[in-house]
Specification:
single chain; Rossmann fold; Helicase, Ruva Protein, domain 3; five-stranded parallel beta sheet; 19 helices; 14 strands; 45% helix
């Protein structure tokens, strides 16, 4: 369906600054092969590039630092002085790691090694930089400076808080693109509903939406489910099976709990993202696939990468467009409306009729931290519909004991995870305030810059700035 008033995501327009016309042509081909609607402008001199930035709707810059009219970090300084909001990816030669680090300190979005980077790696860097630029371009209320009416993924979905409005804006933008999306958030926050909204409000809406929980099956069964198998590939494989990626066609494959995908599956997912092809179990032939990947996780993939449990290259390709879904305790203003929606639905389904919540009950529900998030609230309201007498008001004494007890003594019920998160956020803020860049702050904390961005998103802190 057509939704009025939505913000359109700008078409990917990459400005390549490289005096080597052949290298620029190869990168241009890599980008437009996958992003068919992308625009790529190649320029060989900085002066012409600066003029183009003033007149063209460029969304990302990829530049050499050795240009005919300027060299070194002054190239980056000139670009950022002209369009400071644009992500700039620096191209370096082997052995130029110090120069790359210096460029990152000056605000470069990323760097790539010219001689060793593959075309998919170059494209992944461009996509990631453009995706982060979309996120950083939002105002604090998620409105990008204009009035927004974002798509609701479900009749029971509520988004009255600024954080959830921002999430829905990102969902709408993600729907207009084909890049991979990673939904991050605790269990029960509605990540699959948002994944379905991304699918429903994009060009793939008429194609299938197929979901798979990566932690629900053994490694061999998960491989078969996702990528298919040929007859005789394993005991019980009596016929060929195409797998979810083939079955989805031009649609969407939703990979829930992607952090639990075993190593062999991670390798094959990387091939899907890099080359758009899969190889069925027992087959020696690869088949092209066109399905789009939307993944979800309830854990920090950045931390999983640092611990060696998740592939770094797969992580970068999945986090092109990350969307952090806040827990219900961070959107208490939505609780009353959510409870009312669930009450109406379950009264209709169970053919029962209460007299609604008292205000005191709603206040208690809003103060409870909901460790199980929206799903826990939904189950509690369902229980209330079944246990409260018809035409009776739902009062505090009707609430489950753990909810009543937790609300009575909130200071004593803060979880260790909550306390540690507060300490972690305070330490990160202190480093960001005293050090010149996020890269320096990350180094002082003993983590990577990407891991720092992941922590900021997980803790609900802004990621914009240096």
């Amino acid at each position: 369906m057509v939704l009025d008033g939505l913000i359109s995501q700008p078409r990917l327009h990459v400005l390549l600054i490289d005096p080597d016309a052949g290298a620029a042509a190869r990168l241009r081909h890599a980008i437009v092969t996958v992003e068919h609607d992308a625009v790529v402008t190649a320029i060989g001199r900085l002066t012409a590039a600066l003029q183009a930035l003033r007149t063209l709707g460029v969304t990302c810059v990829v530049t050499e630092l050795d240009l005919p009219d300027l060299c070194g970090l002054d190239v980056l300084r000139s670009l950022r002085a002209t369009r400071p909001e644009l992500p700039v990816i620096v191209v370096t030669d082997a052995g130029s790691e110090d120069l790359a680090v210096a460029a990152m300190k000056l605000g470069a979005a990323d760097y790539i090694r010219k001689r060793t980077a593959t075309a998919p790696e170059l494209l992944a860097a461009v996509r990631a930089a453009a995706g982060r630029a979309v996120l950083s371009g939002l105002d604090d209320d998620g409105s990008a400076g204009t009035a927004v009416r974002a798509p609701l993924p479900d009749p029971d979905f509520v988004a009255s808080t600024a954080r959830m409005r921002q999430v829905l804006v990102l969902v709408e933008r993600a729907g207009r693109s084909s890049v991979p999306v990673l939904l991050e958030g605790e269990t029960g926050t509605g990540k699959e509903l948002l994944a379905r909204a991304i699918h429903a409000h994009g060009s793939r809406a008429r194609a299938p939406f197929l979901a798979q929980n990566c932690g629900a099956l053994s490694e061999s069964l998960l491989e078969s489910e996702l990528f298919g198998h040929v007859r005789g590939a394993f005991t019980g494989a009596e016929r060929d099976r195409p797998g979810l990626f083939a079955d989805a066609g031009e649609g969407t494959v939703f990979l829930d709990e992607i952090g639990e995908a075993p190593p062999a599956v991670q390798v094959k997912l990387l091939r899907v993202l890099q080359h758009g092809e899969v190889k069925a179990l027992g087959s020696d032939r690869a088949h092209p696939v066109r399905a789009r990947i939307v993944a979800a996780t309830n854990r920090s993939l950045g931390a999983e990468v640092e611990a060696g449990r998740f592939r770094r290259d797969l992580y970068y390709r999945l986090t092109v467009f990350p969307i952090r879904v806040p827990p219900l305790r961070h959107r208490a203003a939505d609780v009353a409306q959510l409870a009312a929606r669930f009450l109406a639905r379950f009264e209709r389904e169970e053919r029962r009729q209460t007299a609604g919540f008292t205000q005191e009950t709603l206040d208690l529900l809003a103060r409870y931290p909901w460790p199980g998030n929206v799903r826990e609230l939904e189950h509690e309201v369902h229980r209330l519909v079944l246990t409260v007498a018809n035409d009776q008001r739902i009062r505090p004494q009707h609430l489950a004991g753990p909810i009543r007890d937790a609300v009575r003594s909130p200071a004593q019920t803060a979880t260790l995870a909550t306390l540690l998160a507060r300490i972690e956020l305070a330490l990160i803020r202190q480093r960001l305030e005293t050090l010149p860049t996020k890269t320096a702050a990350a180094r002082s904390l003993g983590i990577t810059r990407e891991a720092l961005y992941g922590k900021l998103r997980r803790l609900g802190a802004p990621t914009r700035g240096r």
